[in-house]
Amino acid sequence: MNRCLRERERVLFQAGDGTAEQRRHVAGCAVCAERLRRLLEDLTVIDQVLEEEPPWRSRVRAPAWRRAIWIPAAAAAVAMLVVVNILFAWQWSRMQTPEVASRVSTAAAATLSLPPTPLDAPQLAESPLDAPVDDPWLNEALQSLPLGDLES
Amino acid sequence: MADREVVLEDRADYDTLYRAQAARVLRLCRLLLADPEEAREVQQEVFLKLFQALARQPGQVNWSAWLTRVAVNACHDRRRSGWWKWWRSHELVEDATISSPAPSPEDAAVGEATRARIWQSFQTLSERQREVFVLRHLEGWTTDEVARGLGISAGSVKRHLFRAVRQLRRRLEGERGG
Asked: ipTM of this predicted complex?
């Protein structure tokens, strides 16, 4: 193997996945040896950093009101319920109003064009005033009244 | 009485294992989750499983490897859970420049900015790249072991390892360059 190791090959070589041919090449190649030395140096720094705690003290969690997922969820549910309710009521009123109006107008038209509905009250043969009164005193008193003035 | 002895013996094994492995498992979880608090929770979960497993099969098991596998799977599950994703998307992270008040000698040697950049770069690795890098490079598993453990091919392990190392090194080189 005459050519130098590529970056990918160097990473795998350093991790222990190199072939015998690559090992022979590295043993005799100062360039590859230097590149591998730098790779090892970088990995040592990375290992050292990752072995420790992260540089920030701790993750700052969202405030309690943001963590409580049920609050926005409940608010959204209530808002949706209100909107649905309003929409339903509006739609219902739209459906009901023309129907009622048409019913009223039909009834009014029918009332104007048709003769008045006869009452179920019994039709009297004569006026109640003309009916005989059993009480003779009252009868005499009625006879003495000036009925002409009353009728006018 | 015999049962009681077995339980006590298992507990002794558990204690020994806990003392020997707790720090390593915590570090592993912290690296895979990039969140110290989550890592502690998963660590407890893992050791609870160990306790249960010891009661079921107290025989000869490579508990170190077992713990690593369980920890990797637990972290994997945690990262995949919808709740965790929601949580992560809503949490705020302190500025990386805010660091511990008393820097260790290592801090002084590496430098605050470098540490912050390496951690930031590590956090931007994909989940798979991070798993492969941690197991292959930090835990010292072989390529075949990582492939078996994660259920992927050896070629995929090599590809993920290379990409992870390249990204981390670029960040480091960028630090040196600028």
From this structure: 0.72
